[in-house]
Design the sequence.
């Protein structure tokens, strides 16, 4: 079942047909841009590596992992790290857009 209207005024229809807080598409867009920048700049790659070292699954970096962040810059960097190393990330936020849950289904899910 797909919702026909946003549940609250700050929610927008996301790429997968689900209404999410308006900050989620922005975080995703900036995270993808940062991932693309990492292909060209070693300083960006280093930031993503440091972030991934903190958030990765401790058993194996390729396994699913998740984290909760409370600032938009941290959400962007965290999502970018998962996208760069795992190939994808799931992004959610609370109704006010004040904290973000960033989740990766793992390298094997996105990259096989």
Sequence:
């Amino acid at each position: 079942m797909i919702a026909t209207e946003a549940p609250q005024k700050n929610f927008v229809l996301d790429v997968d047909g689900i209404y999410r807080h308006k900050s989620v598409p922005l975080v995703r867009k900036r995270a993808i841009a940062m991932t693309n920048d990492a292909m060209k700049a070693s300083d960006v790659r280093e930031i993503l590596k440091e972030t991934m070292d903190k958030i990765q699954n401790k058993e194996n970096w390729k396994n699913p992992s998740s984290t909760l962040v409370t600032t938009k810059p941290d959400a962007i960097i965290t999502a970018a790290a998962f996208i760069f190393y795992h190939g994808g990330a799931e992004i959610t936020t609370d109704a006010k857009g004040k904290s973000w849950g960033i989740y990766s289904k793992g390298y094997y899910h996105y990259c096989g």
About this structure: Residues 23-38 form the longest helix (16 residues). The CA atoms of residues 26 and 76 lie 9 Å apart.
